[in-house]
Specification:
The complex is a heterodimer of chains A (165) and B (414).
Chain A lengths: L17 H16 L21 E5 L14 H5 L5 E7 L5 E9 L8 H5 L5 E4 L13 E2 L1 H6 L17
Antiparallel strand pairs in A: 1-4, 2-3, 3-5
Chain B lengths: L6 H36 L15 H11 L10 H18 L6 E6 L2 E5 L7 H9 L2 H11 L3 H23 L2 H7 L4 H7 L19 H14 L11 H4 L9 H26 L14 E2 L5 E2 L4 H26 L7 H32 L4 H24 L7 H12 L2
Antiparallel strand pairs in B: 1-2, 3-4
Helix pairs in contact in B: 1-11, 1-12, 2-11, 3-4, 3-5, 3-11, 5-6, 6-9, 6-13, 7-13, 9-11, 9-13, 11-12, 13-14
Classes of the chains: A alpha+beta (165), B mainly alpha (414).
């Protein structure tokens, strides 16, 4: 025998084939007869998400449909992966708004900093996960798309326990 | 009632062939579905359930997919044999079905129709002969693909199938001793009891020939190349085995061939050991045609249907049992497979045949007949089965790699 091959001795009396197989068959039969299958019939039966689930973004809007964003620039600054593109502008009343607001959801790590830092509670993460798209471009959400999203927004902390204790 | 003859016989045979073949095809399709369902349920999944009610149309979807997939034939393949191999894989299991009696004789205005496509007088010799042809599909596929993986898979497959054919054939010798005839309908009637005619045993052969049934079951599993004997396919070593190079419906034929084999093996075990189409605890279905054409018992169309149902139930249960084995037992190592075939089954069967022969001789001399004869043999078989299982269980017959290497090293003198 080349090298140090260590033999693990197994007493003949302990080694079993018939008993082990009968045992195995017992287990499989038991599972076969088990009526409750843990499988979730996914498209018919959706997963219940936690309220603090962090998924794709959504922009809060005013009653007239304008985005609540005031273009302060805090979210692109705080974003750790630079996935938010914001070009602010000012309207004739001197109110700032986001002329361009795009989030690259491919790049986003869903940390939720943007939602936390937003002074006017405009940008939110959403409780949502069905994001499949046919093209990569569709994964960059522009302002209109963000405003259109209507899934529930993420609770970044437990309202009953704001300091997370 | 006279047996059907003349033109009516030809018509009846054609109708029987068509009906039985359609039943077999449907059975195969449903078996693939059943296997996926059974596997799913055993693993706490629900199996296919998207296509059609309860996923039953999955069968159609699978078949359609097989046909629609691109067909690739390797450039260096031996085209003729490459095409022939899938046919040869399907053929034996299909024609084997022709000699299996599926139910009691059916009375018609034109005469009695036996529920068997071809009542060949050589019965199970035909079965053994045709069953051994199955290996050609495997070896031809492996060789003609002109691929190392396929070739190795084919070699493994042929070695395995030839080895276990011996077990298959020899485990039927005791059946032959008891039945005294090789005709399949006679085998069935020997397991039933009748008020008149030559003596029978009155019990299914699984009782007086328990060990024989066990060997036949295991050898049958090996012949179908299913787990725990699925060595011809090994993803880690030889990719897909002998059908690595096959695609589309040609692969589908190998795939279906396995299920054809499964059903045929189940049906054969039913006939040889589980009384064929016999319904237990009821004598009304016991109908028998003697060699001179006398019919004992009275045939009726509803009895034919009932007995066919009983046969289907037996076969289905056996197929389900095979599925349970497939999804429970890990495969053998290749050397264990060969050891089991040549060093365990062959000598054990030889001994068993000898013991059975002696027992039959002694019981004959003691003028014991019928159920008492079967009972005495059952006792002997129970004892032998216990001894065999005890030896098998203690790791003496199927040895682990350690014991083997140890023994080899000891011989070399360390």
């Amino acid at each position: 025998m080349p090298g140090d091959v260590r033999f693990v001795e197994r007493p003949e009396a302990e080694s079993s084939y018939v008993r082990a197989i009968s045992q195995g068959l017992g287990i499989t039969v038991r599972h076969f007869l088990r009526p409750d299958k843990p499988t979730q019939q996914y498209p018919d039966e959706k997963w219940e998400l936690a309220p603090r689930w962090r998924g794709t973004h959504r922009m809060a809007v005013h009653e007239d449909g304008r985005a609540k964003c005031v273009g302060c620039g805090l979210c692109p600054t705080v974003c750790p992966v630079n996935c938010i593109k914001l070009i602010p502008a000012e309207d004739e009343n001197g109110e700032r708004y986001a002329a361009v607001y795009e989030i690259d959801e491919f790049r986003c790590i869903f940390c939720g900093f943007c939602q936390e830092v937003c002074p006017v509670e405009a940008i939110h993460l959403g409780v949502h996960y069905e994001n499949a798209e046919y093209t990569r471009e569709r994964w960059v959400y522009d302002l209109a798309r963000l405003c259109e999203n209507d899934h529930p927004v993420t609770a970044l902390w437990d309202p009953a326990d704001p300091s997370s204790e | 009632m006279e047996a059907i003859s003349g033109t009516a016989f030809v018509v009846a045979t054609i109708v029987k062939t068509l009906v039985f073949f359609v039943i077999l095809l449907l059975g195969v399709a449903l078996t693939t579905y059943m296997e996926r369902k059974v596997a799913g349920f055993m693993q706490d999944r629900s199996g296919p359930n998207r296509v059609g009610p309860l996923g039953i149309l999955q069968v159609m979807a699978d078949g359609l997919k097989f046909i629609l997939k691109e067909e690739v034939t390797p450039e260096a393949a031996h085209k003729r044999f490459f095409l022939l191999a899938p046919v040869l894989a399907l053929f034996p299991a299909t024609v084997l079905f022709g000699v299996i009696p599926l139910g009691s004789p059916l009375p018609t205005p034109w005469g009695r129709v036996d529920m068997i496509v071809a009542d060949v007088p050589i019965g199970f010799l035909y079965v053994l002969g045709i069953a051994s042809l199955a290996v050609y599909g495997v070896v031809m596929a492996g060789w003609s693909s002109n691929s190392k993986y396929s070739f190795l898979g084919g070699l493994r497959g042929s070695a395995q199938m030839i080895s276990y054919e011996i077990g298959l054939a020899m485990s039927l010798v005791p059946v032959l001793m008891l039945a005294g005839n090789v005709e399949m309908p006679v085998l069935v009637s020997m397991q039933q009891s009748f008020a008149a005619g030559p003596g029978t045993y009155g019990v299914w052969f699984i009782f007086p020939l328990l060990l024989s049934g066990f060997f036949f079951l295991v050898s049958g599993l090996a012949e179908t190349n299913r787990v725990p004997f699925d060595l011809p396919e090994a993803e880690a070593e030889i990719v897909g085995g002998y059908h690595t190079e096959y695609s589309s419906m040609k692969f589908g034929m190998f795939f279906l061939g396995e299920y054809f084999h499964l059903i045929t093996t189940g049906a054969l075990i039913s006939v040889f050991f589980l009384g064929g189409w016999d319904i237990p605890f009821w004598r009304g279905d016991n109908i028998r045609v003697l060699a001179d054409g006398t019919v004992i018992g009275d045939p009726a169309w509803w009895k034919t249907l009932l007995t066919m149902g009983a046969f289907t139930v037996k076969t289905t249960l056996l197929v389900v049992f095979f599925m349970f084995i497939r999804w429970t037992i890990p495969r053998f190592r290749y050397d264990q497979l060969m050891d089991l075939g040549w060093k365990v089954f062959l000598p054990a069967l030889m001994l068993y045949i000898m013991l059975t022969a002696v027992a039959v001789f002694v019981l004959d001399r003691a003028q014991i007949v019928g159920p008492a004869f079967a009972g005495a043999l059952f006792g002997l078989n129970l004892l032998l089965m216990l001894i065999f299982l005890y030896l098998l269980d203690r790791g003496r017959l199927v040895r682990g790699a350690t014991a083997k290497t140890r023994a080899a090293t000891a011989m070399e003198g360390d």
